[in-house]
Design a protein that fits this description.
Structural class: alpha+beta
Largest sheet: 6 strands, antiparallel, barrel
Number of domains: 2
Strand content: 25-35%
Radius of gyration: 19 Å
Number of strands: 11
Number of helices: 10
Order of helices and strands: HHEHEEEHEEEHHHHHEEEEH
Distance between the termini: 46 Å
C-alpha cells in the first residue's frame, strides 16, 4: 500500500507540479458534491478550512449566508492575510480552484477573491466572498458560472475528463475562460501546443466572447479540423481594449479524440507573445 501511495504522489507531481503537492497527496478523497448536498453539510455559521489547489495555502473561514452558493468570510485577520497572499496581495474577482475541508470531508469548490457586501466578523475583510460548488448559481442567473464550474472540475481532478468529451464550442469557451481567469492548467488542457502560458496570461486583464457562430452539427461528425467564426473583446495590459474578429482553428486526431485549440495560430492572430 505504501508503494502505491508513493507512486501516486510521484505521478501527480509530474502531472501538476510541486505547487499543488499539498492538495494532491490525498486527492483520492476529494468529492465533487452537488450544491444541494453541500448546503446541508455546511449550513450557515459552519466553520471550515479553505485550501487553494495551486499554492496549497490554507485559511479558516465561516459560511455566513447564501442560498444559491455560500457567502463566506475569513475567520480572523490572520486568515484574511493568507487569503490575500493567495491572490498575490491584491483582491480580485478571478476564480480559483479550492478544496473545502470540513471534518473528514474534502469537497471540490471554487472561490473568487473580492470582498463585497456585508461582513460581520472582526477579520480586516471588508465584506464577504463567494464559494461555489458543483451546481451553484450566481445571484443573476439560474445557471452555473462557467469559470466556477471549470475550477470545481479542476479541484476534483475531473477537468481533463470534461474537456476530453467537450464539443468544439465548449472547448473554446473553456479556453477563453482559462485566459480570463489567468489559469495555465485550463488553457494548457484545451491547447493543441505546449505553450509557456504564464507570461501570456499575465498580459490578459479581461476577455469575453461577444459572438460565437455555431456550425451545423453534420459538419462536425467526421471532421478533424474546423474553423469556428468568433468575435472576442480583449483587455490587454498596456494596450487597452482590442477586438478580434476572425476564426479559431480546432484540431483533433480522430473522431473520438478531444478537440484542441490551435494556440500558435490564435496567439499570432492576436499579436500575443
Amino acid at each position: 500500500m505504501k508503494r502505491v501511495i508513493i507512486f501516486f504522489v510521484f505521478i501527480h507531481i509530474l502531472l501538476f507540479g510541486q505547487a499543488a503537492f499539498a492538495a494532491s497527496t490525498i486527492s483520492y478523497k476529494i468529492e465533487m458534491l452537488n450544491w444541494q448536498e453541500v448546503n446541508h453539510i455546511l449550513p450557515k455559521y459552519t466553520k471550515f478550512t479553505v485550501m487553494d489547489v495551486e499554492t496549497g495555502k490554507k485559511f479558516k473561514a465561516q459560511r455566513r449566508a447564501g442560498s444559491h452558493h455560500a457567502d463566506v468570510q475569513p475567520l480572523t485577520a490572520k486568515d484574511t492575510r493568507v487569503m490575500k497572499k493567495i491572490y498575490g496581495g491584491k483582491w480580485s474577482w478571478k476564480r480559483r480552484a479550492i478544496i473545502v475541508i470540513h471534518k473528514d470531508q474534502w469537497i471540490a469548490g471554487s472561490m473568487h477573491g473580492m470582498p463585497h457586501g456585508a461582513g460581520a466578523l472582526q477579520n480586516n475583510f471588508p465584506g464577504h466572498f463567494c464559494i461555489h460548488f458543483y451546481g451553484s448559481t450566481t445571484h443573476r442567473t439560474n445557471s452555473m458560472d462557467l469559470s466556477h464550474m471549470l475550477m470545481v472540475l479542476k479541484a476534483s481532478g475531473k477537468l481533463n475528463q470534461y474537456l476530453g468529451k467537450a464539443n468544439p464550442y465548449e472547448v473554446i469557451e473553456a479556453y477563453v475562460a482559462g485566459l480570463k481567469q489567468q489559469d495555465a492548467r485550463i488553457t494548457s488542457l484545451a491547447s493543441l501546443q505546449k505553450i509557456s502560458w504564464k507570461p501570456i496570461l499575465a498580459e490578459v486583464e479581461n476577455i469575453r466572447i461577444s459572438r460565437l457562430e455555431l456550425l451545423p452539427a453534420e459538419d462536425l461528425t467526421e471532421e478533424l479540423n474546423i474553423n469556428v467564426p468568433i468575435q472576442i473583446d480583449w483587455y490587454i495590459k498596456n494596450r487597452g481594449r482590442q477586438t478580434f474578429s476572425g476564426e479559431i482553428h480546432l484540431v483533433r486526431f480522430s473522431p473520438i479524440d478531444a478537440w484542441k485549440v490551435d494556440s500558435e495560430d490564435f496567439l499570432k492572430e492576436n499579436q500575443l507573445p
